[in-house]
Each structure stands twice: as structure tokens, then as C-alpha cells.
């Protein structure tokens, strides 16, 4: 959720901004993200004042492709202090147990890639799967549409993205972007966020690049003073509202207010620990590092991420 809401809180804003956010409340589509979840099957909330958001990115990147893909899965932890957040990318190909399968597969628990949960049972099954995988209680769900996210980038006039390794794209001026800072329009930025096959570490690069795009959008919104420009504010918030769906229990206004202290520099980007890639049958998958993951997600669950980060500084993406 911080991906979208932090845009609104960066730079503070005034009373008019807050009233405008409230006016957009009914324009944000809602999804039944927790439908059918049984309380006894869910993790206990260990830190009442912290909040955990499941952010799901849906994409239709291929012409004629009508299947929504969950290429992005992030668990966003906002601690009790509400002054920072940790964004933890979970690889979409993570091999784990999905608690419910399709009827033709028997309908019971099945080992699969973690993003199969969304394809098989939408947001509720993905919530069950993520809670089972992490042991962390999901408080709210945000579904981001990549096409809509592109409109947010367009409203900003593009973003400055730090490219970490040579990136080939037909959309790049010379066909290749060398490492360094590059100004990207929405098409180029989303191409950068989608690509994995041209990088030796595949999905790991893609997750880092998605996080880089998020940081770039937040920085650009802050740099341009979107909150102080009525015209930009209108376009920006309407594009933002059109890019997301949220669970029915989430109040956009209240959440924005609660996260108002967070700035782009207050975000820490992480990736769920893994032991690498491998094959299961004919599927290329990513194997989770269960021991390391257990320690990370225990810190999230108990709102002890400051301690975990001090002990694992190399885990921060970009270090």
C-alpha cells in the first residue's frame, strides 16, 4: 500500500489535499480479499499497532493476453512508529504449499509456485498462502494494475531510474541503457520492471528493478511538489485511484493519515531469502531459504525489524 499512499503523504500537503483524498475514497475499487478465510486458520496478530499490507501487481504484458499475472508480490511492513516501512519482495516462482488447488487437481493443498494461488483462488487464496508461508497476519490487501501504474508515471512526466546493469530495450534511445541514472517514460519504465530473461539472475533482477521504479516514482512526486500544485494533484490522485483495488476494510483516507510521516528515504527494500533456482518436473522454480525466512518474518510478525536489519545489513537491496 505504501507504493500508492506514500505519494500522497510525501511533501505533507494541506487541508485541501486531505479533503481531496477523502473525496476519492469511493472511486477506489474494492475487492473481497478476505472472503472465506477462517479465523482459526490465520496467524495471530502479535503486534497490534503494526500493520502489514500485501501488495499484488497484476500485468497483461502480452498482446491478446487476457490472463492477469501476479508478477509482483510484496509484503509491506509498517511498524508501530508509522515513520518508515519495509518492502519485502516475494519471488513469484517461490515453491511452497498452496492450501487449496483447482477441482481437477483434487481441491486440496498442493505444492506450486506461490503466484499460482492468485490464479486459482484470487486474493483470498493468495492471502491464505502468504500467511501460511510467512506466519505473518495480513491486515490489508492492495492490487496494483501495471497499466494504471504507467498512467501515474505519465502524470509525473517520467521518472529518473538508476539502472544497475546494461538493459536492452527496443524502447531505449540507443537500444541499450548502460548503468546509471536514466529518465524513463511509462513504457520504458514498465519494460524495465518486467524484464527478467536478459539478466543472469532473472527474477531477482526484476524484483530489484520493480523496487527501483517504486522509489523513483516517490522521489519524482516529492521533487515536483505534486501536493502543492492543484492541477498536478488532481491528475496524480485520479491516476493513482484508477491504478489500485483495495480490500473492503481499508480506508484510504485513514491509511494516508496514519502513514503521513513516511518519506521516500524511509523505505527499506528487501527480498525474501532464497537458496536459488532449480527444477521441479518441467517447472523452473525458486526455493525459499526456510531458516532465514523464518527469522525475517518472525521479526515482521513481532514488529522487531530494526533488530533484524541491524543484524542483516547486507540483505538490504542496493547495499
Features:
319 residues; alpha+beta; Aminopeptidase; seven-stranded mixed sheet; two-stranded antiparallel ribbon; 24% strand; globular; LytR/CpsA/Psr_CW_biosynth; LytR_CpsA_psr
Give an overview in words:
- There is one protein chain.
- Helix content is 37%, strand content 24%.
- The longest helix has 21 residues, at 203-223.
- By secondary structure, the protein is an alpha+beta fold.
- The chain has a single domain (2-149, 201-315), classed as 3-Layer(aba) Sandwich (Aminopeptidase), CATH 3.40.630.
- InterPro entries: LytR/CpsA/Psr_CW_biosynth, LytR_CpsA_psr.
- Residues 69-222 form the Cell envelope-related transcriptional attenuator domain.
- This is LytR family transcriptional attenuator.
- Pfam families: LytR_cpsA_psr (PF03816).
